[in-house]
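hi! just following up on the protien thing from before. the input was this:
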Amino acid sequence: MSQHRIPAWITVGVIPLANVAMAALAAALVFWYLNINPLDALQAMVYGAFGSSYGWGYTLYYMTSYIFTGLAVAVVFQAGMFNIGGEGQAYIGALGVGLVCLGLGGHVPLIVLLPISIIAAFVFGGLWALIPAWLQAKRGSHIVITTIMFNFIAASLMNYLLINFMKPAGTMSVESAVFDPSSWIPKMHEALALIGISIDRSPLNLSMFWALFVAFAVWFFLWRTRWGYEVRAMGSNASGAQYGGISIPGTVIMIMIIGGGLAGFMALNVVQGEAHQIKLNLVNQMGFTGIAVALMGRNHPVGIVIASLLFGFLTQGGSELQFEYSVDARIVVVLQGLVILFSGALQNMMKHPIERLYLRLTSNRRKTSEELAAEA
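and the predicted 3d structure came back as:
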């Protein structure tokens, strides 16, 4: 099959939608097994995620985190590598944000503190990715193995720091002190209230706009800069890229630092925008979900934003489903797993039939046009 005859809208639009439709059919069977009408379950999920400004707030809040962790996987994948360390990188990014907010909160205004916390999130997350990157570039260690290992190291390190250094005296909770309110990223309902728009309270905060800007910046970096070209060239053919003068070790280190920094940005949403303190297990598997988001979004920033919205819907809609039907909380994981299965492992199941159908339809249309032209 000639791939150059398949337009981009088929590859990035129709095929992912078909995969999601297959996942939805599989999910319907799961609900049927649980004695839940699939249409009623879908209605509950849609209402829980989009039926009110409260639901929208939670959906977009989850979407914001998934954008960051999805981009962290996608940029590294463009270089032909797999970053599995988003969980740990986001955790260490939270440490950077927490130190800035604890140290400067109440002493400088938010307009000064926020750029510093953004830089801290990127630097701490990037530096945590630097060690696996160096091991890959200089020692040949596999990036998948080292990034997975560093997730566990990050969790242990944060546990140690919270218990021994950051936990306030007299409390049993494994968490840092609450940040000064002057360091909090404003919530969306607070910001909109300033211009006369009233919505329900939710965790959604202004870091969502930063996530959208970062998605655009990643697109610009990958497809409009020399460094992005080098990254994509390495991902397409590392030997050819090296022959063309591209430094493979340097590119590995650069793109892994960027990926780690993007994962670190998640702390802006979860820590500075919502929790206002560093908590144990604050990442809550969103780093791993970012892998599914990147796969679903075909490692393109636009696709990742759309896939993040889908996973935000699954997370918030699944919570509503749990409340409405008293199903196990892990039903959300099952739904996400089905999307991952059909969008990742079985992505070619619908790819080839759709492409063949498109080629057949366009071929028939072309023949009809030629026959009409001949008759004329």
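Residues 16 and 273 are 32 Å apart (CA to CA).
The chain has 16 helices and no strands.
cheers
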